[in-house]
RNA sequence: GCUCCCAUCGUCUAGCGGUUAGGACCCAGGGUUUUCAACCCUGUAACCGGAGUUCGAGUCUCCGUGGGAGCGCCA
């Protein structure tokens, strides 16, 4: 039996999701139990969404919760490179190899044709999926169109019938009809692979023995098994973990919950407490004690004990656990060090002082006025969240559009933040003050505070989103239906009058 | 719509045919404490439904129901 090798394969397309740490935790546990290697691989095959800064914060965040890996983009290893964008030739070769062997084919369908197709299928209540329009093109035509530089993709030829038996370590066998999977694109027209090709090629070449990933992948496993078969490789063992859920039971998303590791760090949680809590989400404590370290857990870890139902991420319990870590696991000195490493340092305080200086009479005014920058949460008065002559509902909707607008800001600097907030006022055709006052209240807990744009900048995207969300909830929230309607209107292209 | 996964207190869970269904978070009450936390004690609260197997079902089987996920040139 070969050595156990497990990988964590996140995409650097946004703040690091707690689910990434959760999956990494169980992967690491498995590796520790059998004594193998844990690999970090960056899946940056989406050129439009992947960003290097996200990769940096990803690595930092994973280290912060206490995850460690033996091979990865930052430390190298024998099977690198560990960044998929640096392995393109490998995927392209393998895709061509599949075409030559008759397991895949070129497809010239345009995005427009595909979306029309999907619309029609959805209208006729048919199963959504590619109709194999390009599967039987004559060889000469393909050659000609490829040679002429026409945009095309390579698709996997899935079996039309039969049942795929997926062995899942936690669930036993899962049977899925091949017909449920359509001909997946393997190589995109920009020459980058899709997840499905890249994951199989890399897992093979990196000698991955166990694929431990979220349950959302279970239904696409047949595609991966077909690829292993086509290449003549032995597939790895699969373990699909249950999902982390919002309070309403849906897949955890930043729309309803703080989901990023950066948020929890910034809010003052401890990395080891967060990881401990994440373990509890799917793994029952060994005995009565629910507080345990990674080392303690790995000693007794048994995958069979993983619970299969998705778990709701419960802030209350995390707060309780984190409190125990603060009180029981750290000396006062260590807490001091943690706080310095957190935000109580010159770097951070020196950014606040200029914002508050003009609002201070004595030095003693500083801490109370700065408190909201460090607080876990604030509780603004409803009156401060609603501008005069507006309703609570108006304010809720405005807050929601402010969240969307700020989420779309890629360069988190003063100019872009200001532009985004002004555009919210513009969208509603409100005086800027009617936007800035509630937003300030939502962030600072009071309508009086330092300048909004600087405050937003300093609090950071994740904290800002969460405080806006909390303000919305304080005002009664927004129904799903209303939210969808608002979003539709908000996403309409807007025509700004030209001067 | 089609397919798959899942199902014990509000939440996280123990239970692997015979239990007064246990623990933790939350909440409530009490104790301790100069205050507040912390800590300790007590309490409220659950086996989704229906058949079947069995002397006996939370536990096994089937059928419902409910929830979730997937069906992208996103991962």
Task: Describe the protein's architecture and organization.
- With 499 residues, the protein is mainly α.
- The chain is 48% helix and 9% strand.
- The protein is built from 21 helices and eleven strands.
- The chain has helices at residues 18-34, 52-65, 88-100, 111-123, 139-147, 195-205, 221-231, 261-266, 271-280, 294-300, 315-328, 332-342, 346-356, 366-374, 382-385, 392-407, 414-428, 432-444, 452-459, 461-474, 480-491; strands at residues 5-8, 37-40, 104-107, 153-156, 163-168, 172-177, 185-187, 210-214, 237-241, 244-245, 311-312.
- Strands 3-4-7 form a three-stranded antiparallel beta sheet. Strands 1-2 form a two-stranded parallel ribbon.
- Strand 8 (210-214), helix 7 and strand 9 form a beta-alpha-beta unit.
- Helix 9 packs across helix 11 (315-328) and helix 16 packs antiparallel against helix 20 (461-474).
- The radius of gyration is 25 Å and the shape is globular.
């Amino acid at each position: 039996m070969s050595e156990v090798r497990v990988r964590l394969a996140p995409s650097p397309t946004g703040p690091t999701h707690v689910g990434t740490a959760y999956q990494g935790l169980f992967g690491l546990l498995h590796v520790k139990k059998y004594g193998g290697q844990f690999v970090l691989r960056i899946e940056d095959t989406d050129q439009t969404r992947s960003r290097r800064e996200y990769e940096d914060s990803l690595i930092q965040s994973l280290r912060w919760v206490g995850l460690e890996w033996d091979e990865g983009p930052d430390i190298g290893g024998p099977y690198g490179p560990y960044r998929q964008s640096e392995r393109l030739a490998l995927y392209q070769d393998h895709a061509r190899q599949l075409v030559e062997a008759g397991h895949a084919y070129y497809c010239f369908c345009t995005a427009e044709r595909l979306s029309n197709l999907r619309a029609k299928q959805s209208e006729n209540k048919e199963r959504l999926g590619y109709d194999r329009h390009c599967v039987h093109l004559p060889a000469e035509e393909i050659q000609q169109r490829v040679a002429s530089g026409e945009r095309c993709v390579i698709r996997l030829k899935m079996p039309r019938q039969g049942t795929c038996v997926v062995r899942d370590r936690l669930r036993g066998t899962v049977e899925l009809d091949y017909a449920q999977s359509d001909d997946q694109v393997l190589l995109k027209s920009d020459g980058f692979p899709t997840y499905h090709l890249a994951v199989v090629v890399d897992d093979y070449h990196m000698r991955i023995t166990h694929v431990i990933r979220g349950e959302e992948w279970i239904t696409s496993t047949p595609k991966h098994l077909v690829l292993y078969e086509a290449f003549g490789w032995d597939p790895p063992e699969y373990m699909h973990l249950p999902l982390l859920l919002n309070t309403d039971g849906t897949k955890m998303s930043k729309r309803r919950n703080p989901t990023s590791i950066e948020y929890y760090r910034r809010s003052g949680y401890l990395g080891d407490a967060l990881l401990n809590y994440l373990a509890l989400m799917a793994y029952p404590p060994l005995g009565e004690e629910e507080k345990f370290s990674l080392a303690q857990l790995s000693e007794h870890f048994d995958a069979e004990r993983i619970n299969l139902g998705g778990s709701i991420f419960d802030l209350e319990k995390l707060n309780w656990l984190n409190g125990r870590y603060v009180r029981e696991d750290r000396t006062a000195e260590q807490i001091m060090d943690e706080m310095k490493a957190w935000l109580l340092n010159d770097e951070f305080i020196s950014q606040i002082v200029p914002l508050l200086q003009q609002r201070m009479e004595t030095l003693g005014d500083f801490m109370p006025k700065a408190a909201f920058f460090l607080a876990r949460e604030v509780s603004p008065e409803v009156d401060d969240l609603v501008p005069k002559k507006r309703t609570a509902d108006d304010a809720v909707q405005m807050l929601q559009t402010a969240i969307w607008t700020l989420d779309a800001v890629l360069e988190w600097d003063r100019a872009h933040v200001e532009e985004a907030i002004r555009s919210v006022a513009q969208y509603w055709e409100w005086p800027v003050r009617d936007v800035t006052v509630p937003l300030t209240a939502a962030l600072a807990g009071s309508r009086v505070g330092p300048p909004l744009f600087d405050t937003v900048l300093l609090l950071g995207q994740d904290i800002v989103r969460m405080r806006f969300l909390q303000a919305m909830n304080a005002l009664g929230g927004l129904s799903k239906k209303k939210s969808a309607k608002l979003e539709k209107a908000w996403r309409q292209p807007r025509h700004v009058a030209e001067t």
